[in-house]
Each structure stands twice: as structure tokens, then as C-alpha cells.
Amino acid sequence: MLQIRILHDENKAKATRVSNHAPLPIRFANFGAATMRTFQKNWFLLALIISLVIGLVAHEPLSPLSAADWIQSTIVFIVMWMMAAPIPSELIRQSAARPWPAILASLMNLGFLPALAYFLSPLLNSELAGGLIVAASVPSTQASAAVWTRKAGGDDTVAIFVTLITNLSCALITPALLVWLIGRSVQLDLVSLAKTLLLLVVLPITIAQSMRFSSRFAGAVNQRKSLLSTLCQVGILSMVMLGAVQMGNRLASNTAAPTSLLAVVSVILLATLAHVTTLVVAWYLAQATGVARPQRIAVALSGSQKTLMIGLKLAIDCGVSILPMVIYHVGQLVIDALIADWWKRESDKQVRLS
Asked: The whole model's pTM is what?
């Protein structure tokens, strides 16, 4: 084993020396390939920043798009349908047979995290505080939660089941949370908000899952998972831009409280604190209740992640800042990617030792 390790290290060092002394065109080609891989891995974060900047800078010419509520609603409906269409019904049934991990994650997602955000919100001004509570009160996201769970060696069927539970129940739970937690500073209509979530979240998910009864449709969707995932991300980026347009309009009209650098840093710290605290508490609660490691990973990740699409829509409707939602989403992408890598290494180490 030691000899194999030594040979591996020698070969790696030799490859590095060859690469360093390679002709200039080859080195440029290697640099270009590495740059492309980095871009493919991080393009969404870059596009997220660009969309936010475009919305803020070009808020005046883009205001008609932002004012058309049907555009936002259509984007949300289509994205929710595309997110739900590739989810196999068999995986849902498997998780439903052992529901505790998914129930625990859902309680963390729509119970513990909103309460924690409410506790932290007085440290921010009213617009940012409302935005943080909105970010904490929306359902779990299917895209990154399932991907990071799978990457970390966890049970992604639990993450998928959590997504369905929180998204289907958010039509009742999320409006109640928002009215209760920020109803004093933001005028919210509980019935209207529940109706919106039913039409834009529950209905597209139900339609997508009903369509999967057709084996032909299910097969076609399964073959296009990558395309649907990319289109979902494009839809999210468009919502970020529309939300940034409204934020830019409020800043320009002096109807919003000024957002200082200190306030932005505070949002970053508080959103990160809320996310990481929920993830850690969910992990140890799952461990204390006898949940196995693969399901425990899913509980921690899906219990602490939030969907950007619904969060942006509700933040815009409630008239609060979208900044906490965007920061929370970017933070969960970066932080959970690092945590997933660490858990993967730990899982691989346990496999080698066994």
C-alpha cells in the first residue's frame, strides 16, 4: 500500500513538472480548459450578481416588466412545474414509508428557522428585517438540496420528499407565518397570499406529478433533467432581476430606508448564522432521534435550505427587501457545497476503514 502511494506521488509530481515545462500553447490550452471548468461550476453565482446589478442600474427602463404581476406569476408557475416534473413518484413513496427524517427536516425548515429569523430580525431595519423573515418562511428548495445531499453521500430521496412537503404545505403555513411575524409592519392578506401560493406552487407541482403517470412523459422528462435544471436557473435569474428593479425603484424614490454597507454586512452575517445554526441543530436532532447518517445529511441540508423563486415573489409582494433572500440563497450554495465536500470525504474515509 505504501509503495503504491509513493508511486502515485511520484507520478503526480512528474506530471506537474511536465505541465510546468510544457510549450506555451499547451499551457494556455490547459489554462483555458481550467477556466472553462471553473465557469461551468460557478456560472450561476456570477449570473446572479449580474442580474442583481442590471436590475438595480436599469430599473427605470425595466419598470414596466417589474410592474406586470402576470410576468412574475407565469415565471414562478413554469419554474415550479419544471422543478417537480423530474421527481419520480417511486422515490416519494419510498420516503413516505419512513417519514420521520422528512418530517423532522420540514419542522426545522418551516418552524425552527422562521422563529430564529424573527429573533434575529430586530438587528436590521424594517425592510431588511422583513426580507430576512420572508427568506426564512418560504419552503425548501429541491434543486440544490437534492444535489448537495447526493454529493455528500446522503439520501436524496429524503431531500426530495422534504421539498414536496414544504412546498405543498407552504400555501397554509407561510402566509400564517408572514402575517404573524411581520404583519404589523407589512400589510398582508392571508387569504390572498394562500390563494397565490396554491396557484403558483401547489397547482404546478400537482400537475407535474399527475403528468408523470404517463410513462412516455416521464421518460422524456428524465432524459431532459439537465435542460430543465438550466431553465429553472434562468427563471430564477429573471426573478432576481425583476426584484432588483423594484428595489432600485424604491431606492430612487426615497421610499426605502437607505441600505448602508454595514447593513449589507449585517444581513450577510445574520443570514449565514440562521442557515448554519439550523443545519447544525437539524444534524444533531436527527442524530439524537436515531436517524442514520445518509438520512441525517438530507435532514441537515434540506431542513436549512430555502427556495429563491418563492422567496423573491413573496418579498416583492410584501414590499420588503429581496436582498436577504438573495444573500441567503448565495450563502447556502457556497456554504453547503463546502460542507457537502467535507461530508463526502468523511463518508469515503469510513468506507475505506470498513
From this structure: 0.70
